[in-house]
Amino acid sequence: MFKKASRTLVLFITIFIMCIHSATDTSFISASDESVENSSAQTALTLANADSGRILSSVNGDVKMPCGTLAKIMTALIVAESIESGELTPATLVTASANAQGAGGAVIWLTAGEKMSVGDLLLSMMTGNANDAAIALAERIAQSEENFVEMMNEKARALSMHNTHFANCTGLDADNSYSTANDIALLCCELVKYEFLYDYMTPWLTYIREGQTELVNFNDLVKSLGGIIGIKASKTENSQHCAAVAARREGECYVAVCLNFADKDECLKSAKSLISTGFSAYKTVYPLIDATKLGDVSVKHGVQKSVSVNADITPICIPNADEELISAVVVLPEFVSAPVETGQKLGTLAIYADDVPICELDITAEYSVNKESFATAFISLLETLLN
Fold it and tell me: How far apart are CA 69 and CA 239, in angstroms?
């Protein structure tokens, strides 16, 4: 008789949690996907927890609409990755092209052949919203803006930004350029991992070219929101007023995204209100799970008959009222076949708060198990027969 290939263990595990910061749950309002053309009368709002990457609440969060120069957030992310990889440093000099010089909209008046550091270009792009700075950075990394836009869209797919398409690196109005509040929130959750970027996003007034060029931040919240670490505000004809804001306090970080507002003050007020809700209504916790309660997994044709497992613990964000109502569902196969690699995903641990799914954590192999040789398998078979 064949055994079932997998088993589902429903365990109401007592999960001890470490609260980073104790903070009325906002409702989650889902919205059906709409075309960009039909989104002009709708605003969109999303609140996310940056540490877990979880969308906490949204209104029209999946409705496609122009996001304006918030596209520069993706440009900044790719620059940040290039700095982290060593391809660039903040001091790396970039030579502006004629294409950068010809940029429209907000600019710092780069001239073809002018050299400027990556750091000053980042500051100009994120604080001053300079389009020529964005193009100069894009061309330095990908040789052309067109190649860079391909990188932007590839990165969007990698971040599961499935309702996003970028048409340029600046965010200037263009056909086939759109995103959603939820997608922009995912992007911001990734960006805030690069702490060295904060200084390029938070000044309200600063200068480059030894004080000759003034940069003024369109995001007025950098002057008033406690713990703010960026990210960007935007205004174009198609997108109207948009804002993506992140703030960190006492170890917790929340992201607010507001799209398609007719009034700038209302847009920023809404973003500030969402951030306040994050800190007052939610908390970030780290589940501490006894791995022995997860059990072992049998290994077929391995030099060992079973393998111990670990849960890949990551921070989760829950409403305050749900702290005492956390449970978990463990899903593991009855067996796996050798070889098994250290860290190989074997199952999942689903975390629930008051029966509402919060997240899924990977359950992985604690160590490797090699496949047994023919000789070893033959000896094992003889021993089984003799016994």
Answer: 9
Q: Give the residue-averaged pLDDT of 29-41.
A: 43
Q: Report the run of H or E that residue 21 belongs to, with start and end.
A: none
pLDDT tens profile 344-370: 999 998 888 777 888 888 999 999 999
Nearest Cα residue to 68 out of 173, 186, 184 = 173
Question: How many C-beta atoms surround the C-beta of residue 242 within 10 A?
Answer: 30
Q: Which domains does the chain have, with CATH numbers?
A: 6-19+289-386 (2.60.410.10), 36-283 (3.40.710.10)
| Distance from the first to the final alpha carbon of the chain | 21
312/318 Cα distance (integer angstroms)? 18
CB 174 within 8 A of CB 168: yes
Q: Over 90: is that where the pLDDT of 208 sits?
A: yes
pLDDT digits (tens, 9 = 90+) for 126-149: 999 999 999 999 999 999 999 999
Average pLDDT over residues 99-121: 97
State residue 8's pLDDT score. Answer: 42
DSSP 40-81: TT--EEEEEETTTTEEEEEESTT--B--GGGGHHHHHHHHHH
3-state SS, residue 305: coil
